[in-house]
Amino acid sequence: MTPGDLIQTARLSLQAPRRGIRVVLGWQLSPAEGWLALALMAVVTALILSLIMGPLPPEVDPLTASIFTSPFNLAAVQFLGLVCLTATLYLLGRVTRGKGTFAQALVVMGWLEAILIVVSVGQTFVITLLPPLAILVVVGGLLLSLWLLTNFVAEMHGYASLGLTFLGIVASSVVAVLAMVVVMVILAGFGVVHV
Q: Is 157 exposed, middle or buried (0-12, 13-18, 19+ CB in 10 A)?
């Protein structure tokens, strides 16, 4: 697999998301490679967010400040969020007789995150150069991420209906956020995260 293959597959994933993710799943990455991809995307996202956000204003609450002022904490929270969403999307498939495996869910989320990182960098440049377009660029990025996620999950689990897949993703996302909140509360209780 060359950088050219990655770029071509990313382009295909944007043009025909189901075909693109089919190619990625065809790479037959191991669960260890899926975990590595997810961790790498969490770290890259945290570094980019740290660079974009810069110093936080003093009125930010302590929990938010503890997460966003440390790239390590930000990467950990990002990784936790990706793992929770990956697990809930996999479990969605188990409940609804989808055929995707957890290893495939790791690869799908890692690939999605890689594409969204590139999109986010592009959004940042456009917003910096053309601030009046900021809301359109942000909404466009959000719609693109939902479209890609819906298609990727539908392909992974073998679903025909994108509408039902989207509803399942919404439900899974709620569960993922709740799971993440529970984990954060437990971590705060043990003193790992300070509130």
A: buried
Q: What is the CA radius of gyration of the chain?
A: 17
Smallest CA-to-CA distance from 39 within 89, 88, 76 is with 76
Q: How far apart are CA 54 and CA 63, in angstroms?
A: 17
Cα dihedral 151, 177, 135, 12 in deg (nearest 10): -20
Number of neighbours of residue 148 by Cβ within 10 angstroms: 21
Q: What would the pLDDT profile of 112-156 be if each residue is shown by its tens digit?
A: 999 999 999 999 899 999 999 999 999 999 999 999 999 999 999
pTM: 0.86
Taking the domains of the chain in order of start, what are their residue ranges?
A: 3-189
